[in-house]
Design brief:
The chain is α/β, with parallel strands linked by helices and 206 residues long. The chain has eight helices and five strands; from the N terminus they run βαβααβααβααβα. The protein has one domain: Rossmann fold. α3 runs parallel beside α5 and α4 crosses α7. The chain is globular and about 50 Å long.
């Protein structure tokens, strides 16, 4: 099973994806369960991550360049780690997926939907999420939680950018390839309160 956490920065998706991973590893110690993040989790994908969102250049990165870099990191992660784990009957808990590119590059960056999908089609292949936990939170509250303002360029974006991200997620939730996997989670409250809501929506894995 491929379980993905999505949401804007500060939504709690990273915290909750790790909590679910730790919960499942404790409950099913003999199962093959891994936690990954996009971009990252392999040496090559992590290097692309640094290029795409962490390093500061004297020129602005074009949105199309950004989309291709994320797709490249995604291809490396999915085809070398995620797909082999799923093919072997394992469970993958992921902090982001190609859905992030729909929210960020399609809607917030203003690229054409078909362009973003075409860029990601070969990278993703048939590795689509079985379950998407979409973390919903007020934008201002989410931005108050961010902390990596020097290491992640998205954490210092303006509010209007994240309004576009939220619109992107709303549009993505209605896509035929995603609608059956989509699950909205109220991300307000303590981490434990939010995690309880996630467990209520988690299907039986036995």
């Amino acid at each position: 099973m491929y379980i993905v956490f999505e949401g804007m920065v500060g939504s709690g998706k990273s915290t909750q994806s790790k909590k679910l991973f730790e919960h499942l590893k404790t409950k099913y110690p003999d199962w093959n369960i891994i936690h990954v993040r996009e971009p990252g989790s392999t040496i090559i994908a992590q290097e692309i991550r640094l290029l795409a969102q962490s390093r500061v250049f004297e020129e602005d990165m074009h949105p199309i360049t950004e989309a291709y870099l994320y797709a490249a990191a995604r291809a490396q992660l999915l085809h070398t780690l995620v797909k082999p784990t799923l093919d072997a009957g394992g469970i993958v808990i992921a902090d982001r997926s190609f859905v992030s590119s729909l929210a960020f590059q399609w809607e917030a960056r203003g690229l054409w939907f078909d362009m973003v999908m075409d860029i990601n089609r070969e990278a993703v292949g048939e590795v689509l999420p079985d379950l998407i936990f979409s973390m919903h939170i007020d934008i201002d509250e989410a931005l108050s939680r961010t902390f990596d303002t020097t290491g992640d360029k998205f954490e210092k974006m303006w509010r209007e950018f994240f309004e576009g991200v939220m619109r992107g997620y709303e549009k993505a939730s209605k896509l035929p390839i995603l609608v059956d996997a989509w699950c909205d989670i109220d991300s307000h409250g303590t981490p434990d309160e939010v995690f309880d809501r996630i467990l209520e929506k988690l299907p039986e894995l036995d």
